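So, who can interpret the following?
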Amino acid sequence: MRAHPFSTRTLLVAAALLAACADAPTVTGPDVVAPPTGTADEAVALSLDELAASASLAGDSRAASDYADGALAIRLGARPTEIAISVGGQDYRYHAVGLGIVERGPDGAELLKRTVIAWHGLDRPDAVLRVMSRSDAAIFGREDNPGDLGRATGTWADLARGARFVAIDGALATTLNSVAEPCPNAAADRRFACNLARFDIRMDGTFELVGDATARVPIASEAQGFAGVVVRRLDGGSGGRPTANPSRPQPTRG
């Protein structure tokens, strides 16, 4: 049998991160109830729209979809939560939202795709972190294998310098902590159920500058919680997203 390409150390780190998330405090109550989206939140959503359009033009459909999901989570009513992110050994305050999408795996069983978008800067981000996985504990790597449920993907965009880094090593733990009331800004659509939710995250990754394999930055997060939404398809179909109310026009390519 072909050996698994991941090192024992990386798998142990992933397990440790998941255990830390399990020990993180559970937060319920007012923090998971999102107020109407404000001006600053909408400005961030528009910035994520721009990143989604840029990623699409660059041929990175996965990143484009994840940025768009971050913008959608804000518009559906998720309250951005302040979290601590270490970049290059320096601690920064980021704001984060999550979007969980209930999908069907290869065996037909339900699984949760969870996308986390975190940004530095209030209404005009100067750095954006994007991570995605389909399991509670996953690992980053160079190989692109969308069918591997234990694989995580991630990018860190330094918008101030126009630089983009991709996760090449390390581990990510993201877990769904709790589910609350329906999304306050979701348009009526019987195909979807949308609920406010609470996620936990912990990560320890190495990110490499696109185009320069010698430039790397460690990015890490201790176990902490943040707000988001969970979307489930009710009609047996697959794909698609609910619409925020009022609906927002999508960015056009210039």
Observations:
- The beta strands are 81-87, 90-104, 110-120, 127-133, 137-139, 153-158, 163-182, 192-209, 216-233.
